[in-house]
Amino acid sequence: MPVQILLGTVASDVQARTEAQLGNLGVRPDIGVAVKSLLCGYVELKAPGKGARASRFTGADKKQWEKFKALPNLLYTDASEWALYRFGELQGGAVRFGDIIAKGMDALDDEATAVLHRALINFLSWQPIAPDSSEALAKTLAPLCRLLRADVLVAVRNPDSSLAQLGREWRQYLFPDADDDQFADAYAQTLTYALLLARLNGEENLTTSTAADALDSGHGLLAQALRLLSQPPARQEIAVPVDLLERMIRAVDPTRLRQRGDPWLYFYEDFLSIYDKKLRNSYGVYYTPVQVIGAQVRLVSELLQQKFGKALSYADEGVIFLDPAAGTAAYPLAAIEHALGIAEGRFGEGIVAAKATDCARNFYAFEILVGPYAVAHLRLTKLISDRWGTLPPEGIHVFLTDTLESPHADPPKPSLFARVLTDEHKRAQQVKRHTRVLVCMGNPPYDREQEETGGDGTAAGRKGGWVRFIDKNVPNETPILRDFIDPASASGAGIHLKNLYNDYVYFWRWALWKLFENPEANGPGIISFITASSYLRGPAFVGMRQKMREAFDELWIIDLEGDQHGARKSENVFAIQTPVAIAVGVRYGEPNPEVPATAHYSKISGKPRAKVRSSGFYRSFRRPGMA
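Below the sequence we write its predicted structure tokens.
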């Protein structure tokens, strides 16, 4: 091919291969180019007369461009016009000759030829730039992950493709209700984050194969998922984005990133806001201010010490901690660091390693999105290792699971290859059904369904899982959300029931069941969530309020306001328009539902910074009568 010959004359050690178009599995750039066996970029050939300026494309060419602009180094040409793009940005303007097809050599001129030569040198000299911050890393990886998702989605919709078969296996072993879009998203994020985690763990010669080997110790699910998802026939169908992700992530310098403190504190929120803002909103992925986390951690710690006799707080014997919507593990991290500080202050540095080991064994976290799941593995593993602790033999207790899935659901008998995926599911189910939890803490998502929903909550395909719908594993069991719905209906608030169909309501109901009602593991305990505050006053939540006062002995509410919709607007600690509140509920001993919990209430107004300022925020619970 003439373009391949041309590239070979510009620089040595250039390998240009024609990219095979796999039927209806999607479009690829026409030529893949490597320099010294390292992927360099791609060339897209257009029909003569179409030009190379993306701003002029229409129809199928424009649709193709919307996909290709995620590529970091792409050369467009129709023979007469050439243009170099990096992540969709034109580099140095287009080079235009006369009609090459009609005039041949006579269409060339020395000035344009020199400009094209410089553009080709620039193209062939491309090297991935190592990001020096979490923000830069997010901006680099998100477009490529989105490109990978698009290719996977095209492939999985072809029932004969290798990726369609993988999709069926993924759904069978992990998320049985996932549709094609959810599988494509899970695939793209799993592969991206598994590669990144392997690189951050020190793997230098990064490929999907070496990454899986590097993750075997301590991150078994990600290792096996990477092997499953990168089988050669499947990889061939999505070679372009996978090759680019390998090259880009290989350039990441872990040491350089760590010099900026904790680079993962904001990373996933930054990534998701670029990758898919709609998905971020749907799953409620918003960074929780460290002051909010710190206040919840300290308040629950004080209850553990003063009311439960746990002098070492979260690191004491018998304190099992669970975050059911962990994100990147901000709450478990803060609780462990707080507890280790208490232990070191009381007994000296020598106790830290043993207590870090205890925390690694007694802390659990659930997460449904594979991106933050991988980051949570990274951050918690690093914290325990940095404090000289020992991880459990099976690795850190962060599980990729749907918290709201039925605790009675059992996965199908696995194939040998998929056994580790099923083992993860079984371990998560074991925690849900049998592990006695003392502290449940976090920031569960809040996202109300916008569709009108009847009081029976039977609409298929909506959120809520086992909490809301009939459990096919226990067909005669009543969904536990009925305990919130029925009192509201009886009170005449049926018209408002749609407000109950919100993620945070499901998580509240699940947590109450998990700590206080699960027949196989229940007892005293503490729940502390920051969520939307609509349950404090809304008529639809009368049953929820009743159930909470029956379950707890004492309940503290800090109302952070933040309503951006009403006439009286107030500032929010999150980048959202929904008012929020922190709740800390505690049961000290045997249940006593006939005596409603003593409820304490405090409101904090003002600017977000003032609301989360550590001293004033923490003192709001110290007002007379609040404790």
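The two ends are 79 Å apart (CA to CA).
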